[in-house]
From TrEMBL:
It comes from the Eukaryota. It holds the Pfam family Amidase. Keywords: Signal. SUPFAM superfamilies: Amidase signature (AS) enzymes. Residues 60-454 form the Amidase domain. This is Amidase domain-containing protein.
Amino acid sequence: MACNKLLGFSFCFHILFLILLLISSSLLPTTIAKGFSIQEATVYDLQLAFQRNLLTSRQLVEFYHKQIQTQNPVLRGVLELNPDALAQADKADQERKAKAPSSLSTLHGIPILVKDNIATKDKMNTTAGSFALLGSVVPRDAGVITRLRKAGAIILGKATLSEWSHYRSNDAPSGWNGRGGQGKNPYTMDDPCGSSSGSAISVAANLAALSLGSETDGSILCPSDYNSVVGIKPTVGLTSRAGVVPITPRQDTIGPICRTVSDAALVLETIAGIDINDKATIKASKYVPRGGYAQFLKKDGLRGKRLGVVRIFYSVFGNDTFKRDTFEMHLKTLRQKGAVLVDNLAIDNLQEIFKDQSENIAIAYEFKLSLNAYLRDLVASPVRSLADVIAFNNKHPKLEKLKEYGQDLMLIAQKTKGVRELREAVLDMARLSHIGFEKLMITNKLDAVVVPLSFFNSILARGGYPAVTVPAGYSKGAPFGIIFGGLKGSEPKLIEIAYSFEQATMIRKPPPLRKL
């Protein structure tokens, strides 16, 4: 505990693995027994291996420890390991022997990494990647962590991220934070996108079975797209944000980043629901389906779905004919699987939306207010306000690379005063969403819009709408995804669509092994 609280990550990380190596001269290979491979295994695969006594949770955690030891020094997807993960695994193994399989959750005994802005009341830190919060003590587990623990999931550790969820500076690169350094895309060794970069890097490279990320504007969808994994951005309020280092409660949402749609659906059904510490979950609970989200994993889920194609979003391809041809092929696949494509649609006020500065204005106000509230609630912390964070960065410029990256976004937020401009900005965004994306969906009776990443994530972010991204291909080795987005509460339809597409295409492939 003292190691995690007081010393740097690199030192603690290597001490932990020296201990592990002393305990066992060799950690687990990819194949455990009788040909079963953990590499790329889904939750259903792992649970079946548990039931057939081919695998234990301890072996699974040890496998991921070895993967992290081998690859993380290069990829930097994991910021901190949970020193209690093996004990949690042993507990899961004991429970599996003592209880009927039907009484255990689907995530029981499965390791999951969580983004380092999600509070865990244990021996790990919650820092949003910044040294300013190193040693802070959270009052309780985040709401989503409480649900994961109740389900018997093993909290494997904290994933890296773009520092302060990419709301420190416009100049800071995606995937970088002071504590962990620069995260790397395992396919290209360059931009992993952010801010949930470590969550996507880690599941893509098989450093964890599952992960959680958070999104304000693109922070689940973009890293999932860039790292060839599945990301679900839930309707705002569907999952609790309590105990999560905030940007804005109006747009922040917590969601799964996994290798498959089925794994992501299982995580979503575990973390969705009411949390008394997040009032937005009460209103959004009407969207949570009885029986969870796994029931929507249907191979024929595309049949009869009306999908809108807004061609302006495809202009992002530029001269990349491979991507353009690949998406045309995917549109053909969607039709073949029974979807009705409504092509050549347009969002009437798109130009107005992207000239509008309401989102930037609102986030600046809300970041200051919500971060100050989060910091005040901590049991102990080196910083208690945004002003304190700014002062910390000024005091430790080398630690936080202040000269290289600055803190312009934080400075803008700190200067905000009053609420009139905030109210006007929020009302303007609601108006633009109503006469734009919502009108498109309702007028054309669409179940979803199908687009490449492009700038569609900002449309979804402003209105709190959900989306699922699925691997769509590789252009010169660099992954890209396809996004299905819909109106609030449309997760069941989006999962049906995404799963059916995934099963029809099966595009994802693991990245090359990276090691020192």
